[in-house]
Amino acid sequence: MPLSEKNLARAEELIARYPQRRSALLPLLFLLQAEDGYVSPAGVAQVAGLLGLTKAEVGAVATFYTMFRRRPVGKYVVSVCRTLSCQLRGSREIAAALTERLGTPLGGTDPSGMVTVEEVECLAACDGAPVAQVNTENYERLDPDQALALVERLLRDEVPPPTLAAEGAVTEPSSACLHWRLAGLGDPPPELATARHANANDGEGQA
Ligand code: FES
Predict the structure, then answer these.
(1) Residue pair 36/1 in contact by the 8 Å Cβ criterion
(2) Contact by Cβ (8 Å): 188, 75
(3) Which of 12-16, 32-36, 67-71 has the highest mean pLDDT?
């Protein structure tokens, strides 16, 4: 679905920050994700119209950056690092344990729509290998049992403290809140904290 009337006003607010409308492309794609959980074809067409770009131009950017999703994600996105340090210390086993528990291949979401699991490249916390990230927070030196315990809590809508929880650290309550903040709109509205866009039918293929 494209942006709602309310978020169209937010989009214009974002566009007004730049000397050229097209410069607001990345913030608008994040806003789309905050609303829908992913960048849909209808959303691409709408953003193209708003910015005076072609759908191909918007689509090229949306498919270039891995932080933009092609299908809805769960309330929590668990990203397991698969780069060398983490792989040598067991990240493959963690990913396998999580996909089996969640009943979905990598890139998919569990049937409740709560947790998406994926593999990513280096999370820049190699000294804590193996690392998994939940939305914006790192959980380090995990073994498969600890990773499974983390996911069980996420499925119960509980977020345990990350490994290095600095004072003032922001733990986003949902992937939708994270995308709202990345759009540059500041604190997310309360309703986004409970947003769950994915469902059982979205649990296959790439997130
Ligand atoms: S290799 Fe996994 S965080 Fe760098």
Answers:
(1) yes
(2) no
(3) 12-16
Domains (range + CATH), the chain: 5-70+175-194 (1.10.10.1590), 76-167 (3.40.30.10)
In whole angstroms, what is the distance from residue 165 CA to residue 173 CA?
Answer: 15
120 lines ligand 1 (CB under 6 A): no
Per residue in 83-124, pLDDT (tens digit) is 999 999 999 999 999 999 999 999 999 999 999 999 999 999
Query: Does any ligand 1 atom lie closer than 6 A to the CB of residue 61?
Result: no
162: preceding bond cis by omega (within 30 degrees): no
From the list 181, 184, 138, 191, the residue with the least C-alpha distance to 162 is: 138
Q: Which of 86, 121, 139 is the pocket-test mutation for ligand 1 (most atoms within 8 Å of CB)?
A: 86
Q: What is the pTM of this model?
A: 0.81
Question: What are φ and ψ of residue 198, in 5° steps?
Answer: -75, 160
In this predicted structure, the answer to whether residue 207 has a pLDDT above a threshold of 60 is no
Regarding the beta carbon of 123 and ligand 1, being less than 6 Å apart is answered: yes
Total Cβ atoms within 10 A of residue 177:
25
Query: First-to-last CA distance in the chain?
Result: 17
Report pLDDT for 171: 67
Between 201 and 7, the more confident residue is: 7
Name the DSSP letter for residue 39.
-
